[in-house]
Amino acid sequence: MRIEDDVAAPPGRRERKKQETRAALIAAALRLAVQKGPDEVTVEEISEAADVSVRTFFNYFPHKEHAILGRDPEETEHALRRVREAPAGLSPLTVMRLVMAKALDDLDGVDDRKSSIAQRIELIMRSPALLSQFVQLGAEDERLLAVALAERMGEPAASVRPALIVGTATLAVRTAVQQRKYGADRTLRDLVDDAFRQLADGIDPAYDPAGLLPAGPTTDTSSDQEGQA
Questions:
Q1: Residue 34 backbone dihedrals phi, psi, to 5 degrees
Q2: For residue 74, what are the contacts with CB-CB under 8 A and spacing of at least 6?
Q3: Has residue 118 got a pLDDT over 50?
Q4: 76 with 146: CB under 8 angstroms?
Q5: In the prediction, which pLDDT does 1 show?
Q6: Which tens digits make up the pLDDT trace of 131-173?
Q7: Do 21 and 58 form a contact (C-beta atoms < 8 A)?
Q8: How far apart (Å, rounded) are the C-alpha atoms in residues 25 and 211?
Q9: Higher local confidence (pLDDT), 76 or 225
Q10: What is the largest distance, in Å, between two alpha-carbon atoms of the chain?
Q11: How many CA atoms lie within 13 A of 102 on its CB side?
């Protein structure tokens, strides 16, 4: 089955202006964070570099870290819409592969896109504040996706299975990115497809919950035998 991306209508003039302003703030935030360090750059500096007011900055981002990370709430909304509108016959894991399709295109995109991703990863490793925001945002995105997937599956929002599917799907992509980064001679899409196939097949069919139980008491008869001797 071929997984197709969304075909969206071209944005109107006002929407294009919003997208351009958001993109300008993201570009300025990343550039200044690389130059000065993510903890040193200020919202005022980012706003000035993007030629907008501080008030306008906060219309788009609640924190400077969101701008440095390139956070776009619409991307999460698009992902949630893909979950809700995916064809009825798709399995939950297949739905998550569909959701990941657009993100994979971004990661496999042009060189400057790859460069910005690499720069953000380096910044995240240098800044505890940026790392904290990155983890929180990722966790919230996974929670929202799990709720949407649970609704699609007809399960309660707090069910373990949809949350586990979302979490393992995210981990599959992250693992594929790491493999690609460290020299795997395959495309990122191939690596992700392989990871999803292994999830679907069961990554450890020999898993035995009984092996987690504590061992029962053993009877040491050696001392008794020595006494009888």
A1: -65, -40
A2: none
A3: yes
A4: no
A5: 41
A6: 999 999 999 999 999 999 999 999 999 999 999 999 999 999 8
A7: no
A8: 53
A9: 76
A10: 97
A11: 16
Tens digits of per-residue pLDDT, 167-203?
999 999 888 878 877 777 888 888 899 999 999 999 8
Q: Identity (one letter) of the amino acid at 147? A: V
Interatomic CA distance for residues 36 and 49, integer angstroms: 13
What b/e readout covers 188-220, taking b as 16+ CB neighbours within 10 angstroms?
bbebbbbbbeebeeeeeeeeeeeeeeeeeeeee
Q: Which residue has the tokens 């300025």?
A: 28
Query: Mean pLDDT, the chain, as a whole number?
Result: 84
Residue 146, both tokens: 């799990």
Helices (H), 182-207: 188-201
| Domain chopping of the chain, boundaries | 14-71, 72-203
Please tell me the total number of residues recorded for the chain in this structure.
229
Residue of higher predicted confidence among 208 and 93? 93
Token pair of 102 as six digits: 């657009």
Residue type, 155: E
Q: What is the pLDDT of residue 16?
A: 86
Q: What's the CATH class of domain 72-203?
A: mainly alpha
Residue ranges in 37-110 assigned as alpha helix (H): 43-49, 54-60, 64-68, 73-85, 92-107
> Which single residue is written with the structure tokens 């790859």?
114
Fold of the 14-71 domain: Arc Repressor Mutant, subunit A (1.10.10)
Amino acid sitting at position 217: P
- Which pTM value belongs to this model? 0.75
Q: What is the DSSP letter of 72?
A: -
